[in-house]
User: What shape does this take?
Amino acid sequence: MAPLLTDMPSDRLDALIKHPFHRENGERLVDFIRDLRQCNSAEDVVAFQRELLHATLAANLARAERSRVIKRLRKGQSLPADAPDLIVGDPHDLEDWRLESDVLERVARHLRSIGDAMAWRAFRYDRRYILTLGRNESPGPMTLSKEGTVHEIQFAEQQWREHGRFTLLHDITNCLRFGRDRLPRPERGRAGCPPVRAEDKSEAAGERPAHADSLGG
Assistant: This one.
């Protein structure tokens, strides 16, 4: 886990806040907030979630690449040939890689906060859903190296393509952590479908993987 801002020395905190990744993401968050407010249809929300998913996966991948470099340098090994570019600092300095990794952890967390806003809106600001689906440990960063992540994304696309349902992906939020899901139907505001585990590969209508919630018309 990245250190808290309150635990950082002032010079490191200053470097983190001024890092290009952090500054660029601050501007992007403003755009995401504006775009979410302008979502007026299921099509809008589906497109919005795709953009947020893309940004989240990119941030998590970038941090994973830096974590790999950090592990090698910690062991006294050389930089890997396919190491990513270090945006700020000396590529042979372990602390500079750690700083960039911490920045990307914050970037991903901020993006998931946008996911939280989308979740609250999807559940019509009914805190019962948020409280119920948030009672679990964090599943960790969302990456395409996880089979469950790939299945959930494919499921979301299938639900939209075949049934016109928007499927909320839990792992692009901070607040939704429960390993099972339910179907809130807008016309009733009630939970509908029984929970289904992520490893269930059935394509039957109405089933959904862990960390995803569908909203149908």
In short: The mean pLDDT is 82. The two ends are 39 Å apart (CA to CA). Helices lie at 10-18, 20-37, 42-74, 94-122, 127-133, 147-163. The chain has six helices and four strands.
